[in-house]
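Rotation project, supervised by the postdoc (A.L.). Task for the rotation student: set up a whole-complex structure prediction and record inputs and outputs verbatim in this book. Inputs entered:
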Amino acid sequence: MVYGDVIPCSPQQIGSQWFQDALNGKSRYASWGVGWNKARDQMLFFTAPVARSGVISIGIAMKDLVDNIFRVNLRGGHLYVATEDGHVIAETGPPHTRYVLGNNTVSIHVMDKSDTLPLEKHDNFSCQLDNPEGTGSDPSHTNYLSIWGKRYNFGCAHLDVSGIRMVYVIAFPCKEVIPLVHKMKIVVVSLLSLMILGVIVGSSIMLQLLRRSRIQEAFLYASLIKQKEAIQQAERKSMNKSLAFASASHDVRTSLGGITGLVELCRLDATPNSKLDRHLEQMSTCASQLLGIVNSVLDTSKVEAGKMQLEEVEFDMAQVLEESADIFHFVALKKGLEVIWDPCDCSVLRCSNVKGDCRRLKQILDNLLGNAVKFTSEGHVVVRAWAKKPSLENFKLSSNHEFRFPSILSHLTRCLWKNETNMEILNPVQRGPDSVEFIFEVEDTGKGIPKEKRASVFENYVQVKEKTTGEHEGTGLGLGIVQSFVRLMGGEISIKEKDPGERGTCFRFNIFLKSSDASLDGEENTNSQLHPRNTSVASTQLAGKNVTAQSKIRAMTFKRGLQMEGIHSLLLIQGETKEIMQRWMESLGVKVWAIDHHKLLYPSLEKIKNSLCASAKPDSVSRKNSLSRTTSLNYNKENEGCSSSVDVADQTLPLTTKERLKKLSFSGLPTYILIVIDLSSGNMSEICSILKNFTSSIHNIQCKIVWLASFNTPAADLSSSNQEKCDLVLQKPLHGSRLYALLKLLQEFGGTNVDDPQGIQIMNTMQERQQSIELGSSMDDKTLLSNSFASQSSQHTNKTSGSRYSMDDDTPLSGMNILLAEDMPILSKVAKHTLSRLGATVEHAENGRDAVDLVTKALRGTSDKHNGTAQPQGDLKPLPYDIILMDCEMPIMNGYEATRKIREEENYYGFHIPIIALTAHATPEEERKSISAGMDFHLTKPLKTLIEMAVQFVILHLMEGLLVL
Amino acid sequence: MAPTALQEKLNGLVNSMFAEGLLDEQFQQLQMLQDGSNPGFVAEVVTLFCEDSERILAELTKLMDQAVVDYSKVDAYVHQLKGSSSSVGAQNVKLACIQFRQFCEDNNKEGCMRALNVVKHEYYHLRSKFETMLHLENRIQAYETKQQS
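Outputs recorded:
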């Protein structure tokens, strides 16, 4: 497109040089010039030769170019464009500025306000491009100048516009560009700083977290270490504990052994049959029990591991039962309970020699008894035991049970029985030919065990208890062990259902043990009486003091029963003992009158007398009834004599037996009365006087009185009982060996009975309802037997009467009359006190003469009495003083002289009072002197310990015996 | 003070007396003899002992002060003192008495004088202890009776 007009003109009109150049192509293609039109506008010319003769020149008005340039948005910048020859093409400022172009340089002149005088001159900005190739790119250098208070950024560059060399200078006001950059910078910096900050914060947080986790980790480590230490410590501890346990149990065993040994030693010193002796015996039993417990604790784990082995030792079942019952009797005494062993049918006594694990059995019994005592606050605890020979009948029974099993499932008791029989079947090993089944029952009157808890009772560590009563200690291991043991012995333990009205619990268990009595089996099996030969063998064995033989004898005693016809027994005992005694005696065929209050004593004695008088007449019916009748008196029914009668024997005895009994009862008519009285029954003096009257009122009747003492019986009562007629004093609890003693006493009636034409031996097994009578055993055997028993029992009575002084060990001198001759008040006081503590009655003489006077007076008194009455038995001379303790050095008359005087005096009467010299100087001469003066013994002052006194007493006693002999 | 504290104090005193050798096991026997039936037994015996000893000591002093000492009399008194002291378990007094008798046998006046002084010293020492003991016992008993009532 062509704007403008084409103006042809001749070369003459225009400068020839330019034309020539253009024509020759010498000139550049473009050039700056002043237009040809009249306005002489600045223009750019592009010239080209046309056909060697003409030149075409196209001019473009500079104005258009400048306009174009100005159209570029310079963002507040200024632009100066000029040709290199200095023709300014475009200039926009900055104001008051003049550019002067040099050779490749630009000078900027800052002018004053009128643009006339240059104020400043900034020279020689280089316009050389860094990169000569590039055109139109960055200005070579940027220079900062400040013009009129404004900072400008100058840039200068060459520009080649189609051959026309131009220079442009750009000035940007810094003010406008830099803030942008600044802004950018600030943003960037702030962003950067933010980022840095963020990084810092983040890293610090991270650090914090890291540190925290580190700390946590450290804590964890620490606690882990602690835990580990604790574990190690615990392990160490448990190891130490087990070690210590082992050694401790060893130590305990050792020390227990020591205790037992020492107790045995003490027993040697103790007076036999005395209270001390009994206590020591109890102590040794307790100690061995403790040993057993220690072992049992160790055994618990063994049981659980199933490693428990049963021992097999021969032992006496009766003894075991008695020991256990005795121990718990003491324990229970404190609570006011009664622990008693009910002999039942005496089957245990008859086959008490068994082989088995006695320790475990004891443990079972002790556990059950201990529990019973622990959980019972009033009433009694009864141990029952009976032996059963497992026979074919049992098998039949058990199979029957099994058959009927579903129908009786609901019934708990039956169920338990069924289990038991099942157990029996499961344990055929236990049922050897010589095995005996023992069934035990431990019954108490405690609060009982609720039904729902019965199952858990036998679990280890379980204690059935009410929440309100937390006072019962214990581990809850007891019954668990018991159950394990019972099962080991082939039995089963269960809680027996009690009658609805009854309180308390009843544990029943059965065990199988091997019997070591060979004779028993034969007898039991053939259902015959004991063979005469057995008896003789047994009684000969008695001499050997064999324990087995003794218990055999005992078994036979119980087996033999009694010639009980005509024996009446009156029991004045309280509590369960009475019931059991009554049952036992009735089972022996004794007519029992049981009362429980001393006020009833007199009326019942009268009744006995009356009934005896009545029975003296040949009234067959009353005799028979008297045998089988149980008479019990209650305090409330004082006026009513015989309240109930149960004909047990009538129902069970075969007719022939009854007839025989009837026949026998009329033949001899000897009547014996055995009176058993509990010393704690109450008014002793009243009882004594009643008894005195009674014994004096009957003449042709043998009457024996047995006193029942308990450990808390006052000594006074004991001594007063001694003054009365006394055949036997038994210590509570009344069972076992004490029953045996009683039985022997009963048998003495028969043994001493010469009127008895024929020996009648009743074997009594109440529970099995089997009674058989052996008649006509040869006379020889019987006498032998009765002799042996007579001798034994006479020994026994000797012992009891001999231990008159030693009945109560606290007062071994009780009943002794002692004269103490001592001048010094302190010594006499101490000695007097010591002696009276030991139970002696002490008379005191201040000096020798006093002593002599007292003795003479006493001697005269007794001799007077003697003259009046006939001399009693020759052995017991009533000495005026049992002992005289004589001080040797006294004022007025010394001990030696006094002794001589006394000896003279007593010689006259035929006495010899033991005189003991008390001297302060324990020299041999002194002793010789005292002996020569007629003294019997010599003691050194001061009278020392009680033990010494007791020892001295024993010596005295021996001496006394010698003197009497 | 509580009776238990008193009792402890008393026990401590008695134990210290045992430890010092003032008393021997005879005193323990006396204590054993004391029971509920006669609570003041020990006190009684101790009082008796003190009275007796003081009398004997007075006599002894009188005898020793004389120009011509009757050694047989002295010996008899010392013997008595020895007897009573041994019966309460006053060990030191007893030992001193034994020494005294030795001097008596030798008719050694100077020794006897010395021995008498030793005996006196021992006795007074013991008496002061006994007094404290009895005082304590009295307090305990008074407390007990008060409680009972």
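Student's summary: The CA atoms of residues 80 and 678 of chain A lie 151 Å apart.
Supervisor addendum: The mean pLDDT of chain A is 66.
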